[in-house]
Amino acid sequence: MIRGGNATIFVSNMDRAVRFYTDVLGLKLEYRAGDHWASIDAGDGFKLGLHHKSDKAAAPGTPGSIQVGFDVTDPLDQVVEAVKSRGGVFKGVISDGDAARLAFINDPDGNELYLCELKK
Q1: How does pLDDT run across 23-68, given as a tens digit for each residue?
Q2: Got the DSSP string for 56-89?
Q3: The CATH number, out of the four listed (3.30.70.100, 3.30.460.10, 3.10.180.10, 1.10.287.130), of the domain defined by the range 7-54+66-118
Q4: Global pTM?
Q5: pLDDT tens across 96-117, in order?
Q6: CA gap 2, 70 in Å, rounded
């Protein structure tokens, strides 16, 4: 059985990335090992691993290399406005038919993230 884990995101500047994920998105820094690694708690057991880019890793923000989604517990428009007030810049909001609404934002390295509101 496999349980737990994280989505690893390669970043070019650890301080800037940690500030974005904690201060702008409002997530919790769980652990940091200098400029090498940071573990971000995104809630409900979902973890993000921020890893400083090495020469062997894909370039941070390479289009299509990673996309991370976060489920929201409040109305999407309300969460989007809260993130904007902390410096987040959204690329757009789309409706995925009757299933969900998604709001897209990039982290400082250009990695695509989205906030998801499931329709009930």
Answers
A1: 999 999 999 999 988 999 999 888 998 988 766 666 766 765 677 8
A2: TSPPTT-TTS-EEEEE-SS-HHHHHHHHHHTT--
A3: 3.10.180.10
A4: 0.74
A5: 777 889 899 999 988 888 898 8
A6: 21
